């Protein structure tokens, strides 16, 4: 079923629809569509049907969504190497791709100090050496 | 509902397991599983590359061995769901995802060297990617297998243990997942807990090392609130509206379903592969070069879809509403919608029926 002229007050525009119902809204210029999207919570996915580079580029640059699929829907999910996730009210964080591996890992930074290092020279009692090193670092 | 014998066997097996569990307090039971997993994690340390790959292979084999069972239980839970839909969305995506992780795991696990700050030039700096520990996974009902198992595969690849809470709205699928993962992994590595919203609330309040939740924004908010008590980091895959922008000059031509038998294979999308084949075959010779895509059908795979059409297109949409309710093909429209090739083709196809 197609719902034309759907407005924000309608439940169909507020909740996820798990049935064969599609609300439709219209635009005259692509900027109108972009403004419409940006006036609402950031979507989990945005889909663009068309082959025009100009409008497409504008939509990609000016809207923020979890993912984008062009000329199809949902299939960004099937791209193993792309992070899948939302932004804003559509979620946070991502899995799939290396982003998924890192979501479930702790990135532990390790520093192994070498035998020779400037910090050994920056110890009390401070003197001329410390002043010279600081002078070098804070040029 | 007809089920293959294998499913009935696993389900009845699962029922006996579940009844054994339900005699104890289910919420204490959750904490027991978490404690057992954490103890095992600390005891065994991070799994090696080959250990993780072996676990991924085990998971892959377990899924493939139960492909028919998965298709059957989803069909049972949904009332009716195309086994092809299940195979494509719930099985293929996980299998390919596991293969991807298996292939890239060595690279993912390798520590990365980082730039050493100038005063420390003789030292070295790197990042090690450590497993977090125990991951809590909350899966929804719409793609109940892939949205549970893809996070699980990722958690395993990163060397973690995991507890999964599938949706209470897909009981047959949840039982199959519990039986399958119970046969494949020890409870202190992977555990499935089933139950209603109360169990779900208790689950999301557990002191996991990370929680991944897929579901609605309101429930996501509750999960994050519960997780904040223990400062558990969350990954939230939530709902909302997903806009579908149709570029000017493109029309969605709608055609009537070819067969009354083509009912909706699942909530969340309408029917009808036969229809698509029918109109693709009929129209592909006439509608060239514009490519023909089953665009509406695929749009409706996403329950969050809202179509945003150029207003010049709406005339076509409205014009063809008389004939049609359901999906079909995309075609390029001329500047005059009434005379567009898409409209003419649609009319031709419909008159032939």
Beta-strand proportion of chain A? 15-25%
Strand order in the largest sheet of chain B: 5-4-3-6-7
The largest beta-sheet of chain A arranges its strands as 1-2
Task: Tell me, rounded to a whole number, the average pLDDT of chain B.
Answer: 74
Low-confidence stretches of chain B: 1-23, 252-298, 311-343, 349-353
Per DSSP E runs of 2 or more residues, the count of β-strands of chain A stands at 6
Number of β-strand runs of chain B: 11
Chain oligomer state: heterodimer
* Main beta sheet strand tally, sense and closure of chain A: 2 strands, parallel
Order of helices and strands of chain B: HHHHHEEEHEHEHEHEEEHHEHEH
Alpha-beta classification of chain A: alpha/beta
The coarse overall form of chain A would be: elongated
Which strand-content bin applies to the residues of chain B? 15-25%
Radius of gyration based on Cα positions of chain A: 26 Å
Note the total helix count of chain A.
Answer: 4
Give the topology, please:
The complex is a heterodimer of chains A (139) and B (353).
Chain A: E1 2-4, E2 22-27, H1 30-38, E3 45-49, H2 53-62, E4 67-70, E5 91-92, H3 97-103, E6 105-112, H4 128-137
Parallel strand pairs in A: 1-2, 3-4
Helix pairs in contact in A: 1-2
Chain B: H1 5-22, H2 26-44, H3 49-65, H4 67-78, H5 83-109, E1 112-113, E2 124-131, E3 134-138, H6 146-157, E4 161-165, H7 171-184, E5 190-192, H8 197-204, E6 210-214, H9 217-228, E7 234-237, E8 242-246, E9 250-255, H10 273-283, H11 295-299, E10 305-310, H12 311-321, E11 326-332, H13 341-352
Parallel strand pairs in B: 3-4, 3-6, 4-5, 6-7, 8-10
Antiparallel strand pairs in B: 1-2, 9-11
Helix pairs in contact in B: 1-7, 3-5, 4-5, 4-7, 5-6
Tell me about this structure.
The complex is a heterodimer of chains A (139) and B (353). Chain A has a two-stranded parallel sheet with strand order 1-2. Chain A is elongated. The mean pLDDT of chain A is 86. In chain A, 26% of the residues lie in helices and 20% in strands. Chain A has 139 residues and is an alpha/beta fold. By secondary structure, chain B is of the alpha/beta class. In chain B, helix 4 packs across helix 5. The interface between A and B is large, with 82 and 89 residues.
């Amino acid at each position: 079923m197609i719902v034309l002229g759907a407005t924000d007050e309608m439940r169909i525009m507020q909740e996820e629809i798990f049935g064969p119902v599609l609300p439709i809204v219209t635009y005259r210029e692509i900027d109108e569509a972009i403004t419409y999207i940006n006036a609402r919570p950031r979507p989990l996915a945005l889909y663009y049907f068309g082959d025009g580079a100009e409008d497409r580029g504008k939509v990609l640059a000016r809207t923020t969504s979890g993912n984008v699929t062009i000329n199809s829907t949902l299939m960004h999910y099937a791209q193993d190497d792309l992070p899948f996730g939302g932004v804003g009210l559509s979620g946070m964080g991502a899995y799939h791709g290396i982003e998924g591996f890192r979501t479930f890992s702790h990135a532990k930074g390790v520093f192994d100090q070498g035998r020779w290092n400037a910090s050994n020279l920056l110890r009390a009692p401070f003197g001329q050496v410390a002043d010279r090193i600081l002078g070098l670092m804070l040029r | 509902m007809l089920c293959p014998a294998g499913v009935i066997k696993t389900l009845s097996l699962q029922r006996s397991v579940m009844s054994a569990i339900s005699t104890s307090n289910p919420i204490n039971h959750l904490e027991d599983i978490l404690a057992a997993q954490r103890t095992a994690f600390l005891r065994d340390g991070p799994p090696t590359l080959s250990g993780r790959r072996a676990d991924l292979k085990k998971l892959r084999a377990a899924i493939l061995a139960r492909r028919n069972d998965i298709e059957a239980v989803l069909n049972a839970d949904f009332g009716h769901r195309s086994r092809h839909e299940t195979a494509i969305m719930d099985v293929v995506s996980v299998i390919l995802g596991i293969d991807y992780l298996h292939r890239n795991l060595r690279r993912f696990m390798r520590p990365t060297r980082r730039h050493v700050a100038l005063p420390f030039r003789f030292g070295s700096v790197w990042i090690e990617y450590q497993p977090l520990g125990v991951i809590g996974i909350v899966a929804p009902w719409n793609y109940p297998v892939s949205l549970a198992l893809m996070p699980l595969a990722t958690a395993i690849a990163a060397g973690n243990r995991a507890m999964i809470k599938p949706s209470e709205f897909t009981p047959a699928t949840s039982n199959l997942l519990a039986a399958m993962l119970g046969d494949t992994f020890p409870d202190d590595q992977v555990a499935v807990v089933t139950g209603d919203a109360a169990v779900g609330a208790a689950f999301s309040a557990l002191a996991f090392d990370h929680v991944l939740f897929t579901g609605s924004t309101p429930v996501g908010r509750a999960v994050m609130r519960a997780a904040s008590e223990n400062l558990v980091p969350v990954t939230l895959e939530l709902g909302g509206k997903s806009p579908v922008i149709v570029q000017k000059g493109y029309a969605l031509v709608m055609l009537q379903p070819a067969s009354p038998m083509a009912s909706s294979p699942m909530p969340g999308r309408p029917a009808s592969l036969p229809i698509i084949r029918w109109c693709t075959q009929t129209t592909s010779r006439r509608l060239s070069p514009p490519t023909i895509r089953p665009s509406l059908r695929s749009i409706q795979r996403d329950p969050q879809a809202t179509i945003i059409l150029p207003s010049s297109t709406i005339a076509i949409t409205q014009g063809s509403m008389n004939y049609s309710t359901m999906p079909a093909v995309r075609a390029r429209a001329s500047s005059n919608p009434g005379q567009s090739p898409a409209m003419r083709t649609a009319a031709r196809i419909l008159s032939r029926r």
